[in-house]
Amino acid sequence: LLGELLLPATMVIHHRAEWVDTELKSLKIERKEDGQILVLLFSRPQEGNSWTEHMRNELCYMLDEASKDPKVRVVVVTGDPAGKAFCVGMALKDNPGDPPGDAPEGRPVNNSYARDGGGTAGLAVCRCTKPVIAAVNGNAVGVGMTFPLCCDMTVCAEDAKIGFVFGKRGISLEALSSFFLVRAVGWKKAMELVLTGRVLRASDAPAGLFNYVVPQAEVMPKALELAKEILATAPMSAMMNRQMLLRNATMSPEEAHLVESRSINALIRMPDAREGIVSFLEKRPPKFTADTIKDVPEFYPWWREIVTKSKL
Hints:
With about 300 residues, the protein is an alpha/beta fold. The protein has helices at about 55-70, 115-125, 145-150, 175-185, 185-195, 220-230, 235-245, 255-265, 270-280, and strands at about 25-30, 35-40, 75-80, 130-135, 140, 155, 160-165, 200, 210-215. The chain has a 6-stranded mixed beta sheet with strand order 1-2-3-4-6-9, sandwiched between helices. Strand 3 (about 75-80), helix 2 (about 115-125) and strand 4 form a beta-alpha-beta unit. It is globular and about 55 Å long. The two termini are about 30 Å apart.
């Protein structure tokens, strides 16, 4: 299956157990820098790259595949330029709804089984072993705006219309936005964005919502520039550091200290730590070799894992 990442996008096949067994339909893939950067494009161009649950499934699948592929170092998620938007939110018509697999087979659908599709995709970003960058190259509202919050960095087009419009549709936050939005912009600004449901230009967004706001033509070049900078770092360092920033913020300083101590003690004993030092002294690019699946420290994960899949 890992080899499928080396095939054209139309050749990538899903497991039957992962709800669909067809070719990718709502997602396109591209590869940059000899396959080290995997670009995933929301691709429903006739509908503004609007979100469907099948798109969500394909996105989760490819993020999990990227995690397992040692060649992939960074993932960039963007919108198909033909859609003239990053993602205009959930498709309000012709959305196939929840794919089989979201609820236990044979059970009637009820609230206890419900799982938000945007949140499922956000969790795929959180568990990814590679950094994920959102390149918001056009309008982004609803899940089109909340999904990028889950990503490690976001570059946005300055003229893109953005908004957390859930209150105007009579629904509530999703895609882990109740967790990430306050972290990004602070309590008061998060409240303002959500309670007003305001649609605004990215150039007027509060500080912290995006890493960079640039002209539309510069969104992908800037995202790829960031991705290339990550390529110069050790893959295990990237994985451990992003997880510590994600997981340790809810800990006490003492708990964070214990995790950091175990992490640096484990990584300093790996060959990549020596390579980082030697390459610096020899004034040459480093050649890191650690595999973020096979070489993970024995205490990883250090947080309590919560199973979110609905049970029988």
